[in-house]
Design a protein that fits this description.
Blueprint: H1 2-25, E1 26-34, E2 40-48, E3 54-58, E4 62-67, E5 80-83, E6 89-91, E7 97-105, E8 112-124, H2 141-144, E9 148-154, E10 159-161, H3 164-167, E11 168-170, H4 171-177, E12 179-189, E13 194-206, E14 219-227, E15 233-239
Parallel strand pairs: 2-15
Antiparallel strand pairs: 1-2, 3-7, 4-14, 5-6, 5-13, 7-13, 8-12, 8-14, 8-15, 9-11, 9-13, 10-12
Amino acid sequence: MDKKNTMLLTVIAVATLLVAVVGATFAYFAIGATAENNAKTTITGSTENAQVGTVALTGNNDINMALTAEDMSLANKGHTFYAKGDGTAVIDSEQKLTIGTATLTGGSSGVVYKCIAKYTITYDDTDLGAITWSDGTSDQEALGDDGAVLKLSAKEGSTIEIPSDLQTIKLKELASNKTKSGNITFTITGNGSSVTSELQASLAIANSEKEQQGRLANKKFTITFETDEENGFTCDTVSAGD
């Protein structure tokens, strides 16, 4: 009886060791998580001799900027106002606000992840009243063309691919279409701990000769950034470390 028990334990031990070896050699994974903005993280694939981590996307829901009568006064003609994180405006100082952060937690150093976020950018003109955007006349050119823009960029040190039509968006275009969508790709390389990649945006409104005063004074601009609830954020590994 003792010999039989010994053999059985030996078989179990060998089977456990084989599972451990296979698991260490090929790490197959499927990881899901929910971000603050309802984006779902899905990672599928396999890497050899590497452990994978989890990636989550979080971020602010919108950028707001309220313009005061003083901002849009003749005294400030020729200046540009940028949205701050608190919803107010600052003069002639670009503010790059983080709107999305992809965070990789754990995993082996050197594993490269590509994560695609499908963003929808929405323009809200509820508080804008009777603003008329550029119709091609010289007195409206600044606001309608390059004087009111939203710019998306990667924070220094982050690797993010942004479609050209999302890098600089005229508010005139957003005001007409209300929304604009596109896929933004985050590339993150694991370091064995935690790594972040940040998407930023800046909102700029120029005080031009004809567009200031009553038309923009005491008006509020709201830009909202959202990801698709079902397939808004997907990830996969593209290479593995040693």
